[in-house]
Specification:
With about 220 residues, the protein is of the alpha/beta class. It is built from 8 helices and 11 strands.
Length: about 220
């Protein structure tokens, strides 16, 4: 899962990035409204944490431009503006949630998890499919009831596929959501990563649909 952090306070941005990285997300960050608008309009983020008080373009204007352009990724507004009319304006502009500074990092992480689940049509923090369980709160994977140790990159991959269970996900889409701007992207590395996960989760856990992509089957589908 890939997140963009838009925050012009370096300390706050750094703290959020550290927490999100530790929670299994790949993070990019920027501190300028124009840059934020361009990134959000051209990159496939799973969620954006957006501050309102930004240089060059206010965060609310950035959000309005994203929505006018048809960009539908979840947006969590993060701001020191706590008055209720401003919260209403942000929600009406297309924000999915609102968090006022100062805040607890645990609450931000919980809201991020919930927004990403909802954008995938899921409600529960435990995602189940094909004998696999993803615990999004504890960042744990279970195969047939047994906990499976995974690396942070393996967790990001299995998390993305589980959030999109029942859908064949193209390799290019996985790569875009697995790696940040500063990471190298290699289709061969993705195949090697999937092979390692199959050894841990079972050969049939991740299906390959030649020419189309990868699938974790949804038992309910």
């Amino acid at each position: 899962m890939r997140v963009l952090i838009v925050e012009d306070d370096p300390r706050i941005a750094g703290d959020i990035k550290t927490a999100l990285n530790a929670a299994g997300y790949s993070c990019d960050s920027c501190a300028d409204g124009e840059d934020a608008w361009f990134r959000g309009d051209t990159e496939p983020y799973d969620l954006i944490v957006l501050d309102l008080g930004l240089p060059s373009m206010d965060g609310l204007q950035v959000l309005k431009r994203w929505r006018a352009a048809g960009r539908r990724m979840p947006v969590l507004i993060l701001t020191a503006r706590g008055a209720w009319p401003e919260r209403v304006e942000g929600i009406d502009a297309g924000a999915d949630d609102y968090l006022t500074k100062p805040f607890r990092m645990e609450e931000l992480l919980a809201r991020v998890r919930a927004l990403i689940r909802r954008s995938s049509g899921l409600a529960d923090a435990l995602i189940e499919a094909g004998g696999l369980i993803l615990d999004t709160r504890q960042m744990r994977i279970f195969a047939d009831g047994t906990p499976v140790p995974v690396s942070p990159l393996e967790y990001r991959l299995i998390s993305y596929l589980m959030h999109h269970k029942g859908r064949v996900v193209p390799a290019g889409e996985i790569i875009e959501h697995l790696y940040g701007d500063d990471d190298s992207r290699d289709a061969n590395a993705l195949e090697a990563l999937i092979m390692r996960l199959r050894k841990k989760l079972g050969a049939g856990a991740i299906e390959t649909r030649r020419g189309f992509g990868y699938l974790i089957a949804d038992d309910a589908s």
